[in-house]
Amino acid sequence: MDGIYFYSFFWIVWVIATFFMKKTAWRTMVAAAALITIIFSSVSLNIGGFQITLSFLFLFFLSCYYAAKQSRRKLVYMAIAVLTIAFAYTSFQLLVFFDPVWIWMDHRWMLAILLVILCFLFYENIQSRLLCLVIGSCQGEMLYSIISQKISFSYIIGSYSFLDTVSLSACCTFIWALVDYIPVYIDGKKPIRGTRQP
Fold this sequence. Notes:
Layout: H1 4-19, H2 25-40, E1 44-47, E2 50-53, H3 54-67, H4 72-98, H5 107-122, H6 126-150, E3 156-157, H7 160-189
């Protein structure tokens, strides 16, 4: 069922931010962003002949806002990474549409794995990976919708299928970051030779 991964992921993010994170402005922003995305997912607008969900617009502009805070050199690099993600996203969606025989499992999982691998090739820190993932996926979604309209195929930009893919990709990114952090955390807990751990 479309939307199950999206709702599960964003509700988990909201619960973690609300009940487990320290009371800071960042925690409030994360909780609010997760809740707004969930609320906006069922609302859509008609813009220029395209039907777009508010969740899509919210995630896209929020990610662009944080990406714009980087230096010009980093922005140029991110633009290259985002274009790569966007073209990969569109190409995969076209493959699903025109030649689905190659899709041997849930296409949302296959696309999510592809996007995560590409993000990992471009960036090492989780913040840049998530920004690149969301912006690239959004642009790929828009490009695919333009192509769909040219062939008289009705398509909702930011549908639950898109939100599922982004949620799965973000979840995989968070899990990988957690796995990377575990050895660092364990090393920090090990007592230095010749000393006692309090």
